[in-house]
Amino acid sequence: MDQATSASPVMTFSVLTSSAPVLAPRVGRLAIPGRKTLATPHHVPLTSRGTVPHVAHDVMRDHTEINSLYAGLEDFIAKKDAPVYKTPVANHESPLKKFICVADEMPLILGPRRFPPIPCPPANTSTSIALLTSVGFTQLSAAEYVKSIQKLKPDIAIGMVDLANKQPGSKRRAKMVDRTHAWTQEALEQLYGNSAAEENKSKSAFFAPVLPLDNAQQSLYLDDLESEFRWDISGLALYQSASLGFVPESLADLPRLLFSEPETPHNILRDVSLGADLLTTPLLGASSDGGIAMEFTFPAPAALQESKSEPRPLGIDLWLGDHATDTSPLGEGCECYTCKHYHRAYIHHLLVAKEMTAWALLQVHNFHVMDNFFAGVRESIQRGSFEQDVETFARIYASSMPESKGTGPRLRGYQLPANGPNQPRRMPKIWGQLDDAIQKYAESQSEVATPDTDASGLEEHGFAEKL
Amino acid sequence: MLCHRLLARRPPRTSYPSLSISIANMSTAAPTRNSMPSALTFDRHAKCSTTKARASTLHLPHGSVPLPIFMPVATQASLKGLTYDQLRETGCMLCLNNTYHLGLKPGQAVLDAVGGAHKLQGWDRNLLTDSGGFQMVSLLQLATVTEEGVRFLSPHDGSPMLLTPEHSISLQNSIGSDIIMQLDDVIATTSPDHARIKEAMDRSVRWLDRCIAEHKYPERQNLFCIIQGGLDLELRKQCCEEMVARDTPGIAIGGLSGGEAKEEFCKVVDTCTDILPEHKPRYVMGVGYPEDIVVAVALGADMFDCVWPTRTARFGDAIVSSGTLKLSHKSFADDFGPVEEGCTCVCCRPTDQGGLGLTRAYMHHITAKETVGAHLLTIHNVHYMLTMMGKIRQAIIDDQYPAFLRKFFSDIYQGDKSKYPEWAVGALRGVGVDLLADS
């Protein structure tokens, strides 16, 4: 088997096993000096305003194995002169890590936008992208973003990319490539170029974006990645699974971070089999919010492989009343904190009672399941049985996650797409104390013989005619 | 809806054997009352030589609780986002659940099947449950109290329901809490109807007898009576005498924290503690602002509960020794100090001491935006309250409580004695501490 290592000054990525440079599953090790080493393939825990949703810092430290974080700059720059830039730090420390109060050894990935991003109605420009802060839409210029990387010192910075909200036409596609190309070039120049003095060169590893377009459409850009930019980039950021097929062989030894929204573990396995090293898995948080405890292991347990029964569900919906008195753990034999200390009946009760603890405990469990899943993936690839294991997994488990019946936590503006006209309420009204009064008021009014509508309304109802 | 039926599952009794006795005995304590079994022991360690403050230890079936104590309220079997290990970390030995809420969700049948609230929520320390009467009256429209119990309309389908003392005790027996409360006839202390207040007091005594009769596990659950009587000190005295005669393991002073003037509140507590036996724990229900607690301790109370510290945390307010900090205010946006300097909670402790080293700036960043902000501030506030209680207790043991009181008020009002609340000055003067005197 091939052994390849890419080493930029700031990060080392060694591929331990791979049958082919691209389009094949591979196990790797991503090492940043002074940080926890990441075994790949691995999922990247996503943060919202610097926290893993519902997981308090002490819970993360004590009860999860979370060993990397992704943060979007848009979560921190609602105000001009944002506080995150003023964080007091020692010379080597990352102000962003210090601001969100995570340990220095936690590898931190910074991108311009949170993931998954909320589509922004304002258009990107040739020098900036539109993003959504907690106070509204704004533009982030490529130059500002580079400055943020320099100031905030994340371990890995994702290059700014021009993505279209909907399927782009040919003109838009050309713009996407040109802009991303120019932004990448400028960023690399600012971060590592000759214009910067040696001691001012950025210590952040730069992951260059690959656009979710065909190979041919971005060939000029990819050529530059292979040649001019090659020694300044430490990895690639991809935005669709198909892009894994466009990675040039000469860039094959770079780690690939795939920003996608796999809906099932089957999708994750497909992306891994195409050579993804780091993956975003928003389905983890979505499951917790929906009251779903994920329940799958990879490779599928031998005991299940024998049975020819119904496909196994990928998770259990704890909203269901079946769990009301069930004191068994969420997952049979699960070793996570939640399963060792609590049970289904409790989580069910918490969900029904709309208590926040439900989501916290589900997150702990679901992270554990996902961590184990990826550990299983790595072992399977190293054993050389990955393809077979994927097939078995697909046969044994259901093809989709169970659909949640319940309501999740209250969503905030920055977590929601912008409201369009005529959209229904996202959450039912909860404050109803004055409803009685309103009703009484309405009733008292209706005693007076006045119709509820104007003249044209009456006409429409055939009540009377306008003269 | 099913839950409601469970709550009111038992058919109302047609006759109350204990009722007639207690009415007959209203004016004089029963001479032949059996002493009640108790599942607690109450060790008194020290009494303040100036005030009526006491330091003691309450040994309950799930561990020992240092008194005076503040009890955080885990209304629906969970303390707002926290795991029970996080709650344990704050030092909490005793927390509350609400009978009314647990009766609705998950309901008595589930509690019985799971084996009680401790097992349900994975909490191996002590629980206290209220009787549900307060929620009936405060949360529900059209709740009416009759001799039988509280009649109310189900909030789900509007059908008429009845909660009797028997239902309440039966539910609390199913919950299995270490301290259970009698169902009392709760009315607002501010009610102008004196006859109604007297009726509520008398009825609470009669209901106590029904609760005692219904209580199935006195050897492992401690039933506390609840002193009623509004702001009428004579009624309160009568009620104390009646209830003390029933010899419950502990005694609560109820019907306060309903918007009455603080002076009145202090008078009631003061009057009751003068009569109540020294060897029993005294619980002032629903009281929880730090100022109220330190004064009530001086008046001889031992136990307190309030949702305020945890509720205010969710709004982004941190309790600190100088009062409360509204962390959502923009002045904290780039304040990189801990929530409170020197605080030993896991949030404020620096990372090199095993804490999280959280800053005000970051709390400002997530407060009221991420659930984690609520979790972390809840930890801080509960820890603050428990630490404060620990300091109170130590001050009493060292016989330094008057000095503690002076420092406490000086910290909150930055030494400006003109700002001290009159009610606190007055109440403490009554127990021999003059806050305004030069120390």
From TrEMBL, chain A:
Which keywords, in A-to-Z order, does the entry hold?
Cytoplasm, Metal-binding, tRNA processing, Zinc
Q: Which residues form the tRNA-guanine(15) transglycosylase-like domain?
A: 25-398
Cofactor binding note: Binds 1 zinc ion per subunit.
Annotated binding of Zn(2+), by residue: C334, C336, C339, H365
What GO cellular-component annotations does this UniProt entry give? cytoplasm
Identify the main location. cytoplasm
Q: What GO terms describe the biological role, i.e. biological process, of this protein?
A: tRNA modification
Q: Which residues form the signal peptide?
A: none
SUPFAM superfamilies per the UniProt record, alphabetical? tRNA-guanine transglycosylase
Q: Give this protein's Gene Ontology molecular function annotations.
A: metal ion binding; tRNA-guanosine(34) queuine transglycosylase activity
Q: Which InterPro entries match?
A: QTRTD1, Queuine_tRNA-ribosyltrfase, TGT-like_sf, tRNA_ribo_trans-like
Q: Which Pfam families did the record assign?
A: TGT
**Biased composition range(s): Basic and acidic residues:** 458-467
> What's the cofactor?
Zn(2+)
Instruction: Tell whether Nucleus is among the UniProt keywords.
Output: no
Subcellular location as annotated: Cytoplasm
Instruction: Tell me the segments the record calls region Disordered.
Output: 443-467
Q: Per the similarity annotation, which family is this? A: Belongs to the queuine tRNA-ribosyltransferase family. QTRT2 subfamily.
Q: What the protein does? A: Non-catalytic subunit of the queuine tRNA-ribosyltransferase (TGT) that catalyzes the base-exchange of a guanine (G) residue with queuine (Q) at position 34 (anticodon wobble position) in tRNAs with GU(N) anticodons (tRNA-Asp, -Asn, -His and -Tyr), resulting in the hypermodified nucleoside queuosine (7-(((4,5-cis-dihydroxy-2-cyclopenten-1-yl)amino)methyl)-7-deazaguanosine).
On assembly, the entry states: Heterodimer of a catalytic subunit and an accessory subunit.
Protein name as annotated? Queuine tRNA-ribosyltransferase accessory subunit 2
Organism from which the protein derives: Penicillium coprophilum
Starting at the broadest rank, the lineage of the source organism is: Eukaryota, Fungi, Dikarya, Ascomycota, Pezizomycotina
TrEMBL record, chain B:
* Annotated residues for binding of Zn(2+): C343, C345, C348, H380
Q: Which GO terms describe its biological process?
A: tRNA modification
**Which keywords does this chain's UniProt record carry?**
Cytoplasm, Glycosyltransferase, Metal-binding, Transferase, tRNA processing, Zinc
Give any GO molecular function from the UniProt entry: metal ion binding
Where is the region RNA binding? 286-292, 310-314
Which cofactor does the UniProt annotation name?
Answer: Zn(2+)
Please report the stretch or stretches of sequence annotated as the tRNA-guanine(15) transglycosylase-like domain: 51-412
Q: What is its main location?
A: cytoplasm
Q: Which family does it belong to?
A: Belongs to the queuine tRNA-ribosyltransferase family.
Q: Catalytic residues per the record?
A: D130, D305
What is the phylogenetic placement of the source species in the record? Eukaryota, Fungi, Dikarya, Ascomycota, Pezizomycotina
Where found, per UniProt? Answer: Cytoplasm
Give a short account of what the protein does: Catalytic subunit of the queuine tRNA-ribosyltransferase (TGT) that catalyzes the base-exchange of a guanine (G) residue with queuine (Q) at position 34 (anticodon wobble position) in tRNAs with GU(N) anticodons (tRNA-Asp, -Asn, -His and -Tyr), resulting in the hypermodified nucleoside queuosine (7-(((4,5-cis-dihydroxy-2-cyclopenten-1-yl)amino)methyl)-7-deazaguanosine). Catalysis occurs through a double-displacement mechanism. The nucleophile active site attacks the C1' of nucleotide 34 to detach the guanine base from the RNA, forming a covalent enzyme-RNA intermediate.
Binding positions for substrate per the UniProt entry: D130, S131, G132, G133, F134, D184, Q228, G255
What is known about its subunit structure?
A: Heterodimer of a catalytic subunit and an accessory subunit.
Catalysed reactions, as listed in the record: guanosine(34) in tRNA + queuine = queuosine(34) in tRNA + guanine
One Gene Ontology term, aspect cellular component: cytosol
Q: What species is given as this protein's source?
A: Penicillium coprophilum
The name this protein goes by in its record: Queuine tRNA-ribosyltransferase catalytic subunit 1
For this protein, the Enzyme Commission number is: 2.4.2.64
Q: Which Pfam families match?
A: TGT
Please indicate which superkingdom the organism of origin belongs to.
Answer: Eukaryota
